[in-house]
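Honest question from a wet-lab person: if I give you the sequences of every part of a complex, can you actually get the arrangement of the whole thing, not just the pieces? Trying it with mine:
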Amino acid sequence: MAEYEQMLAANEEWAKSFPGSKPVAPGRKTAVVACMDSRIPLFGVLGLAVGDAHVIRNAGGVITEDTIRSLTISQHVLGTREIVLVHHTDCGLQKTDDAGLADLVEQATGHRPPWAARTFTDVDADVRESIRLLNESPYLLSKDICGTVYDVETGRLRQVEP
Amino acid sequence: MAEYEQMLAANEEWAKSFPGSKPVAPGRKTAVVACMDSRIPLFGVLGLAVGDAHVIRNAGGVITEDTIRSLTISQHVLGTREIVLVHHTDCGLQKTDDAGLADLVEQATGHRPPWAARTFTDVDADVRESIRLLNESPYLLSKDICGTVYDVETGRLRQVEP
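Yes, you can. This is the full assembly:
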């Protein structure tokens, strides 16, 4: 059975105990920007309930044009104001560098990506870089930002000083 | 108390029952691309365990350069092969259009975004558009894609025919 078939089957169980509908605007007026890492179940990690917060995730949890697009819609259309960043230890983006990733993709596919992979070495510095990029954006209504690092070995979240 | 302070406090409870570490490569070799909507707790909705799948989320769950960057890293560096798309009913991106969002942001901030908001009207068509964009990308190793729509009123996931 393909993974998607197992997920569709698991969803039937979820729907049986579905807690009911919620408004489209996040109740806690917060957007979380986090890494796509498979070990971070954000609802549990942050104590979120269904309907509480937007969840934006990409490789690294970095700030890109797409992150800004999502946060702009989150704030202007759906009323969020706080931004919580979740980076983490043992990130896949610390295991290569931008040129190394481009080489790997070019060797496997024959096509070299024109975009940067956004690899990094120091996770705290990467959180501060995200805060800097958010503060530079002219499109956001609110820059009430908390940067954190999640430890995938302990489950603990640590705030990063800006 | 700010929302982030409540989340840091909730995390202390999470860490007390932390289930233990997992490898960085997703165990089920799957990447999920979903909307940032606050009503979709993907781990529960899809029956995912910690360590199972990458989770990429943005406004609409659409395919952008950043989505391709994340999926490229997911496949080339961390070994995923299936892609599961999760769009949903009652999406914030169905409540405006690209020009309307640009007008709203310009009126509030004095700056008109140069990027498209990626609004849509027909959710099934938007899932098919995502599948088309993924199939066009030269950087991915695998295009084993399942597109779905999540009903935020019932908790049910429905597969969309490509």
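Two things worth pointing out. The first helix of chain A runs from residue 3 to 16. The beta strands of chain A are 30-35, 53-58, 82-88, 144-150, 157-160.
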